[in-house]
Amino acid sequence: MSRNNKITLLTMVLIGIAIIAYSMRDVKLSLLIHDVLTLNLWWILVAFLCICLYLLIEGVITKVLVSNRVKHFTFKDAIRVPLVEQLFNGITPFSSGGQPGQLIVMLQTGIDGGKASSVLLMKFVVYQAMIVVNFFFSLVIGFHFVASRLQVLALFVLFGFLIHFFVIVGLLLIMYWPTFTKKLAKLLFHPVKWFVKDEKFYSMQDTMYAKIDNLFEESVRIGRQPKLLLKVVVLTFFQLSFYYLIPYFIMLALGVTGANVIMVTSLHIMIVMIISLFPIPGGSGGAEFSFESLFHSFISSNSKLVLAMIIWRILTYYFGMAAGAFALALKPDKVDDSDKPA
């Protein structure tokens, strides 16, 4: 990890501590300590297992997609991919560093850059598609709950849905209508020419066209393997399900038993969507505010609400970054990219 990345990581941890300290301003320390001591650790363990399964399943997805093209790609290197993704997602605005971080890890193993990019693109397409599907159902189930209590957050929810929806529409256009997509991309990309030199502009445009061609070729290849695609879709569904269930198990650990699991899961899906709109790495500030705002109706005790938020952030944000820093330090196994899968 570079010096700048280390500084960013430390900065995000300090910002997180400051936000938690601010959230505790109206909470009696004695009540918070009492809530910590009375936690049901078995449910905390279940919540922890959920985040572990979320990461492990993404490792399995990576292994499945890479092993389809390259032999001798170990599960150790497969699990390094989502862990490093968590690290770079957590220290970059809009989680923009996750994809490059995954690519670097795969290149370290000796996988060809084109193949690695294709695998990551297909994984990204399926992941985005499943997010949009899950988010659509969460809107049907829980949007009225959000709109009736917090109209501002409701607007963020709708805006987030539109952004992710247009992302997946754009990806589908690339996969099934590349000629039109290139024309549309050229039209939308043209204003960039006003701000950069011609040489730089045409280089960026060529790179964009190459990525469109790459995704189209990968979609054609994966389309010829429906069983593989179905396997990735099913695995991604379970991966996201474990992640979305984490707040529910945290609430059970706090003794909150009257909440509807479907409603709680739907609200968590919305929170994840809201976080993606905040430019600060990890959605710091917005994540904590969204969680407290939406789950206040289920957790009446202010101290328990703050504790739930702290545990949730540790599991879904800080744990992933810590594991990613460890994974980044591991020495990768090497593959011979001339090998073909049996």
UniProtKB/TrEMBL annotation:
EC identifiers of the protein: 2.3.2.3
Membrane topology term: Multi-pass membrane protein
Top-level taxon in the UniProt lineage: Bacteria
Signal peptide start-end: none
Record carries keyword Transmembrane: yes
Catalytic reaction equation(s): L-lysyl-tRNA(Lys) + a 1,2-diacyl-sn-glycero-3-phospho-(1'-sn-glycerol) = a 1,2-diacyl-sn-glycero-3-phospho-1'-(3'-O-L-lysyl)-sn-glycerol + tRNA(Lys)
A GO CC term attached to the entry: plasma membrane
GO molecular function: phosphatidylglycerol lysyltransferase activity
Places the protein is found: Cell membrane
GO terms under biological process: lipid metabolic process; response to antibiotic
Regions crossing the membrane: 7-24, 44-66, 124-146, 152-177, 228-246, 305-330
Similarity comment text for this entry: Belongs to the LPG synthase family.
Biological role: Catalyzes the transfer of a lysyl group from L-lysyl-tRNA(Lys) to membrane-bound phosphatidylglycerol (PG), which produces lysylphosphatidylglycerol (LPG), a major component of the bacterial membrane with a positive net charge. LPG synthesis contributes to bacterial virulence as it is involved in the resistance mechanism against cationic antimicrobial peptides (CAMP) produces by the host's immune system (defensins, cathelicidins) and by the competing microorganisms.
Protein name (database record): Phosphatidylglycerol lysyltransferase
Organism: Lentilactobacillus parabuchneri
Gene for this chain: mprF
